[in-house]
Amino acid sequence: MPKLNQYILQADAIGRRILDGEPLPYPATDAVLNMKVLDACLQSATERKRIEIQ
To answer: pLDDT tens across 3-20, in order?
Structure first.
């Protein structure tokens, strides 16, 4: 399995979107959902309990 840098892949995709109008390989809602997960992880670690994501 090749080693991939996800940040470079994302930056390249955004660049192609801006310069060429190419659609993104992921919807913008993915970023919102990822932030919900990260926020829940931080809250869980702080409160030392399971957090339900809605």
So the answer is: 999 999 999 999 999 999
